[in-house]
Design a protein that fits this description.
alpha/beta; TIM Barrel; 2 domains; 8-stranded parallel beta sheet; 3-stranded antiparallel beta sheet; 17% strand; binds flavin mononucleotide
Length: 333
């Protein structure tokens, strides 16, 4: 049983059924069962990043996660970025597997939210602006994740986490989770003090032993400073629109490939080619020009100084929260 400081004991724990108000962000390719299980085992909420994955992989990952532990988890899908037939098959597979919760992102698919609510499922929507928050809530979402502009990966909005968060909290009847810019106890406490009931961490969990990211990607996050990240639309292959992402600066973001043939193959992953400008980040086993791939990373890298286990990462976060609370109390006397 984890000793939780008071600001972290929120109703979200009851909603999600976990001990800690810390969620794993659904990172495509990176958040597989080993990582989700480790977050579960440390007391947090596991999320399998299954965007555009074939149904066989979803089945394998859900079964593998359940074989390790029985903690609460969700499957993350991105409806707008997934071909409709595949999306319907993904959802049907999750229902057949009796998956209880879903995390969705990007355009709000109100019909899908309503359908899953009728099926008795929990729906969590990651949003990056007030309009999406309102849409998701009126469709029936149980929890909102507010993603700020600092976030790594695809970035939905243009407002910083600590500016968007209190506004969405003020306009919501459901628990709100903060995401983007958070990889330390201090940042967590800031989010909780502005009304968040939980946090959803991407980069902080990518830089762990259990994440399915390539070690080059993990090490670059550890080495990076906040201003080494770039907000760009250069990585748009495999996505339905030229959407902005936050990545670590590399040859692509510097424009070195601007004149290159977009069909240039720069590496391979699991026997499949990885093309220039692809949104596929290098996973374990990737080969080729790793540094020229999409190295998704949030500005939270300023708070990430080592590749650790998930348990160590969470222990450090909680220690930092305790230290910050003690310091605030001591200094206010
Ligand atoms: C490598 C990586 C991949 C991501 N892939 C997804 C995804 O597939 N689905 C999704 O909803 N969000 C995705 N995101 C965004 C996260 O959900 C979250 O908003 C972001 O990681 C928060 O910022 P942080 O990295 O600073 O914690 C991704 C983020 C990263 C870093």
């Amino acid at each position: 049983m984890v000793m939780l400081p008071k600001p972290l004991r929120t109703p979200l724990l009851h909603t999600l059924g976990c001990e800690l108000p810390i969620m794993l962000a659904g990172m495509g390719g990176v958040s597989r069962h080993q990582l989700a299980a480790a977050v579960n085992q440390a007391g947090g909420f596991g999320v399998l990043g299954m965007v555009r994955e074939p149904v066989e992989r979803i089945r394998q990952e859900v079964e593998a996660l359940r074989a390790i532990n029985d903690g609460p988890f969700a499957v993350n899908l991105i409806p707008a970025a997934t071909e409709r037939r595949l999306l319907m098959d993904q959802v049907a597979t999750c229902l057949a597997l009796q998956v209880d919760a879903f995390v969705f992102f990007w355009d709000v698919d109100t019909g899908l939210v309503q359908y899953l609510k009728q099926e008795g499922k929990q729906v969590i929507y990651q949003v990056g602006n007030q309009r999406d928050a309102d849409l998701a809530q009126s469709a029936g979402a149980d929890v909102l994740i507010v993603q700020g502009h600092e976030a790594g990966g695809h970035v939905r909005g243009t407002t910083a986490t600590l500016s968007l968060l209190p506004q969405v909290v003020a306009n919501s009847d459901v628990p709100v989770v903060a995401s983007g810019g958070i990889a330390s106890g201090g940042a967590m406490l800031a989010a909780f003090s502005m009304g968040a009931q939980g946090v959803s961490l991407g980069s902080a969990f990518l830089a762990t032993h259990e994440a399915n990211a390539h070690s080059h990607h993990k090490q670059r996050i550890v080495d990076a400073r906040a201003d080494d990240t770039v907000y760009t639309t250069r990585f748009s292959r495999n996505w339905h629109e030229p959407a902005p992402v936050r990545v670590l600066s590399n040859a692509v973001t510097r424009g070195d490939y601007d004149e290159a043939d977009p069909d240039t193959c720069i590496g391979e992953q699991d026997g499949q080619p990885i093309y220039l400008f692809s949104t596929d980040s290098p996973l374990t086993g990737a080969q080729g020009k790793l540094d020229d791939m999409a190295l998704f990373c949030g500005q939270s890298c300023s708070q990430i100084n080592a590749i650790t286990s998930v348990q160590q990462r969470i222990d450090t976060l909680l220690d930092e929260v305790h230290i910050r609370i003690a310091a605030l109390y001591r200094d206010s006397r």
